[in-house]
Specification:
With about 55 residues, this protein is an all-beta fold. Helix content is about 0%, strand content about 65%. It is globular and about 25 Å long.
Length: about 55
């Protein structure tokens, strides 16, 4: 598996991180990163900083 290949994609999710939370966002989970597509833009967060991801579909 490559760092550029995501493991899972969730179209509508809630994400809890050590820095805060995101709701109603698209999420791609990679081996070392979590990509969050939010209304103001895209956020790349290290996986160790993400505490939970909830599928909201």
């Amino acid at each position: 598996m490559s760092e550029t290949d995501f493991v899972t994609r969730i179209e509508v999710a809630a994400v809890q991180t050590q820095m805060g939370e995101y709701n109603d966002v698209a999420v791609e989970i990679y081996p070392s990163w979590v990509k969050i597509e939010d209304d103001p833009g895209t956020h790349w967060i290290p996986r160790e900083k993400v505490t939970e991801v909830f599928d909201q579909e």
